[in-house]
Amino acid sequence: MSNINVDEVEEQMEEDEFEEELHETIRFLLVEFRGSLYTFTKHIANMNCERVHRPLNRRPITSRGYNYIHKILKEDPTNFREIYRMYPDVFLKLNNILREKTHLQDTRYICIEEMLAVFLLVVGHNTRYCLIRKTFERSRYNTSQNFNKVLKALNSIAADMMVKPGSAVPEKIRESTRFYPYFKDCIGAIDGTHIPATVFGRDTNSYRNRHGKISQNVLAACNFDLEFIYVLSGWEGSAHDSNVLTDALSRNNGLKVTQGYFFNATSLFNFFLFFRIIYSIHYCGVRYHLQDFTGQGRHPEDAKELFNLRHTSLRNVTERLFGIFKSRFKLFKTAPPFKYTTQTEIVLACAGLHNFLRKECRSDEFPVETEIEVPPSSSEQVYKDDNFGELFDTQEQQRTNTNAWRDAIANQMWSDYDHIVNKS
Q1: Phi and psi angles of residue 183, each rounded to the nearest 5 degrees, phi first
Q2: Calpha distance 284→198 (Å, rounded)
Q3: DSSP 139-172
Q4: Residue 236 to residue 246: CA distance in whole angstroms
Q5: Are 266 and 282 in contact (CB under 8 A)?
């Protein structure tokens, strides 16, 4: 009986000692917490706006980026334009548009001007984050966040920045007897271009274009003032232009054309008359490219060659536009180091930005770097679709009518041209 009482007493003593140690530990932690809280409160009270001291493993946040961008805005405008692809007054106007029309806002330490500058350095010079973070003294995370915030903001207003086709005859056509009145209903040109892309995984081969390079196929419609009307990005480099156009026409917010007007296009879009949108297409198997008519004694010899010469002179606007676009935004010269969805979003954002700059800096153009395009092989020009035979049968009459319409224009054009030549 005594042995049992002794055991119970020892167990009770052990429990009392454990509870006492537990209470002592809790009391110690509370004292330490109160001390840390007091130190932190005192630190916040004495903290100035210049620097926030953080643990050594994190980059301190400073106001250097804010001071830098506002300083350079007041310096040489030409130097600013070379760095940020626009003049300071245009930069500030774009900054105000983003501030008023999007959800982009200043943060505690980063202003919208700095965010926009980061975005323009990346797309304008293909600058990497590691260099930008040194300029603004930001972490890689903050630099990436600033870029993506501006990208999202620009994409939210990109549709509004696209040019709306008007009913008036374009000035380039109206003031030239070579084009008027034959192309008076032409509102622009449509074509595709390939932009280098970064793609990983098993789908890589589907993004390989006919030159063997990884790219995305971008469709663009533009007017004769070198402004984008519509842009569709994201298609694989191996996709045929006709498939991309199918997608553009079938979307709810896709490419729309007023009845009675048409775009200038190549023969690659010859299969889209069934969309009730007429495309002016050149004659195949006849001289077409501008260099084919360059040199002495290489003038057009019949109505088809004359039509092709003037047709390609109008369609050349897309090549000029793509040249200026890629020269202004050098990010598109090489494969961007972003995920593919971000790459497609950048194209749309820069297209809207290009239109903005065309309006604000119409005389401010970057030199066009010409690119040699190898024409696709005959096998690549074949439109592949399981329902192609049915579509062809049902639209054969419309195709015939369109060809007759083109022949009438070509014959009238040749008649006027022949009359002028004989008169002279």
Answers
A1: -115, 30
A2: 35
A3: -HHHHHHHHHHHHHHHHHHHHHHSPPPPSSPPHH
A4: 14
A5: yes
Q: What is the pLDDT of residue 179?
A: 87
CA 400, CA 11: separation in Å to the nearest integer?
A: 104
Look-up of token digits 């009675």: 260
Q: How many CB atoms lie within 10 A of CB 26?
A: 10
Identify the pLDDT of residue 112. Answer: 94
pLDDT, residue 399, reads 67
Residues 6+ apart with CB under 8 A from 368: 320, 323, 324, 327
pLDDT at 330: 94
pLDDT score recorded for residue 139: 86
177, containing H or E segment: none
Please report how many Cα atoms fall inside a 13 Å half-sphere around the Cα of residue 103, on the Cβ side: 5
Residue 415 and residue 418: Cα distance in Å, rounded?
Answer: 5
- What is the per-residue pLDDT for 288? 58
Residues 6+ apart with CB under 8 A from 74: 88
Backbone phi, then psi, for 61, in 5-degree steps? Answer: -90, 125
**Alpha-carbon torsion 87, 92, 97, 99, what sign?**
positive
Which residues does the chain have with pLDDT short of 70? 1-18, 20-21, 38, 41-62, 266-283, 288-292, 295-298, 362-399, 424
Q: ω before 88 within 30° of 0 (cis)?
A: no
pLDDT of residue 257: 80
